[in-house]
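HOLO CASE FILE
Compound: protoporphyrin IX containing FE
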Amino acid sequence: MKPVTPLPPGPRGLPLLGSLLDYQKGAADFLLRTRTRYGADSRIRMGPYVFTLATSPASVYRVLVENRPNYERGVLYKQFELVMGRGLLTLDDEDWKPHRRAIQPAFTKAAVASYYPFIEHQAQSLVERWRQASAEGRPIELISECLRLASAVILEASLGVRASIADDALRRVVDESIDIMFPHGTLSEQLPEWLPTPRNRRVRQNRKRLLNFAQSVLDGHEADRDTIDVISSIRREHPDLSESELRDELLTIYLAGHETTAMGLCWALTMLAQQPGMHARLSEEAGATAVANVPSMAELAGFGYADAFVAETLRLFPPIWVFPRDAREDDTLSGYRVQAGTSVLLSPLVTHRDPDVWTNPSAFDPERFLGKQKHPRGAYIPFGLGARQCIGNAMALLEIKAFLATIAREFRLEVLPTSINSYGDSLVSLRPLDEVWVKVTPFDAARKVAV
Ligand code: HEM
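Model generated. Tokens follow.
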């Protein structure tokens, strides 16, 4: 008789509820604890649902690359659809392919390079704003600052509209929408969409406001620019895409592209503020070549330590810390059975802290990305992997590196007392738990003080 492949081990949890309460108390820490207790691949029951937490590099690789056709976006991505509609992130298979083909030209190497002046412009005005804040003795709050920067870059560079199209009211809608997308495991999330519950009303109101915003992006689009942006790329490559499909794609790019990049930058700056030795190395690297306040793209290409610093930030604090797939048919992951219909959770946060892969995994150490060190395939996945890998990854890396190098070269940062390095995880992205306030001092002023 053929031996039966075992199911993965996992917490028993409470009758009926399973591990739901542990998850609700702190989802990321619960997943990290489960990894420690049950190994890299485990099984978690939450209420009526059973999940496989697949975090070993081999399982990650199998789900995202080797046996990709067996894994669809699944039920958890349906929550995203409530906000973003049917766009690149939520579409599957044959629906997804033509959309990816239509948008890809806006994210080629050449297209991303053509966006650099927008990044440079934002970095330049940041330097002026921070100098002014320092002169007036005002601290800077990093989360809101990074969100503003990333929003401006994506609107101006990728969507071809003015950054001022986004205001505080939109920020509130976006924050609420991000909260809606994340499954909190509450009963109200399980009720049918047509019921007039407070949550369903909130979902509908937000979606309506986001669609109005997408329409204002279309109305404000500057079609006569030299650069290729998402809208011009779609109109050229896929002219029969309906206006409503186009609006969903714009929302997808705006929402998927700016919150993530902002959090990557925010964590990088939080690390910078706490690591004077690394700060000195970054500012020496940037200072050695940069003539203007903001390094040029050619100069940035030579900043190897900044690359390692950004890579390490995205390892320890991956902005997308968990994402799902559903198994279409039975499969075997790292020797364990995954039954058809199971939701599989992939967690960059847990995989990136796997002690079987990373030495001293909770230490922040950019050195691990310098030189020839190699990690196994599936071990480093801040942008996902395979055909569905993040379309904006080169743009995000360029943007974070440019802001980081500019700031490292121009300012000294001191974090004001706050609970830095802890994350609030009940969101799609990994955000610091509290606001992060820093005192910024321009280096020329700092040097004058030191004299
Ligand atoms: C540090 C910044 C970023 C991080 C950490 C990040 C992370 C990710 C991850 C993990 C995925 C894969 C999700 C999955 O396979 O289920 C993804 C997909 C995606 N990302 Fe990003 N992202 C970032 C920046 C951006 C930017 C700048 C854009 C657009 C301008 C963007 C747009 C998208 C889109 C549209 C997808 C879906 C791609 C597809 O399935 O074809 N992201 N991202």
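CASE NOTES: The chain has one domain: 20-450. The domain at 20-450 is CATH 1.10.630.10 (Cytochrome p450).
CLOSED: yes
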